[in-house]
Amino acid sequence: MSKAAAYALPSADGSFEKVTIERRDLGPDDVLIDIEFVGICHSDIHTARDEWGGTKYPCVPGHEIAGIVAAVGSSVRKYQVGDRVGVGCLVNSCGKCEPCLAGEEQYCARGASWTYNSPVPEETQPGGYTLGGYATQIVVTENFVVAIPEGIDLDVAAPLLCAGITLYSPLKHWNAGPGKKVAIIGMGGLGHVGVKIAAALGAEVTVLSQSLRKRDDGLRMGATHYYATSDKETFRQLRNSFDLIINTVSADLPIDNYLRLLALDGSLVILGLPENPMTVHGRNLAAYRRSLAGSMIGGIAQTQEMLNFCASHGIGADIELISADEIDSAYDRVIASDVQYRFVIDAGTI
User: Fold this and answer.
1) For the chain, which has fewer Cβ within 10 Å, the N-terminal or C-terminal residue?
2) Does the pLDDT value for residue 89 go beyond 90?
3) pTM for the complete prediction?
4) How many CA atoms lie within 13 A of 276 on its CB side?
């Protein structure tokens, strides 16, 4: 076993502490990564504070990992020491079920292994559950490591490993591109990346946000239109307008109001997970043959595709770089929507 410095939360109501964790010895198919930067995702907060239940402590979150290959196992062929690489939400899957064989490891029928707080054998991670990227090093099997192209700086690339693929996957699946009208609900850590990617795909992009506070940023990032959902006139004016609406927020929204914004055969895709069940009137789906769907990150091959696409279009997240001793305050600021637009931890401060 090797050791790495990390920041861990000891309990749901605790504060992050610097600790030493164990990583497994390098196996033939493994890659050892020196972590340079790791993003803070809202799901880190939900998990660390046990808001979804089942969190194991001490908890080391982090699944937006960018770094440099430090060592490789004897059978590794894709990477070599010095390569720029990333690790996202997944670190393993069965590799044999229908979703895995289709390159959709996130839907593994036998249950994928997530980058943190996921049960694994002791030989995979000492302690029996995965520890994430708020650390100086991580060991990941080769097939779950992706290359970060030279066209993106590592710090702004880190959030793409979750936020980027979470938006890229549904935009591609529902054919966002020239001639399509796409609306993004929310202009936060997910939404701002979605605006950039949808615009780069050639779609006409509209931001639907609670207020017009971030309007200038939205237009700078590629949106053509920006509306405040606090204004009831927005829902009247935009009725039957969009081919695709992607909801990035976790708030309990009046979904029927948004369904009525879809054009014929339009789809509303849920990414954010609200606290309460959604209520939908069937007539708003039947009218205009609309669809309500969901999406969860993307597979490893598509994550690589997304990174290559972002590099070729000059897309990275807008970030605030912080030191590891600022994690607790950063969590509070995320909850208060006081970040533009993604916190990224400088792992050199761990």
Assistant:
1) N
2) yes
3) 0.94
4) 8
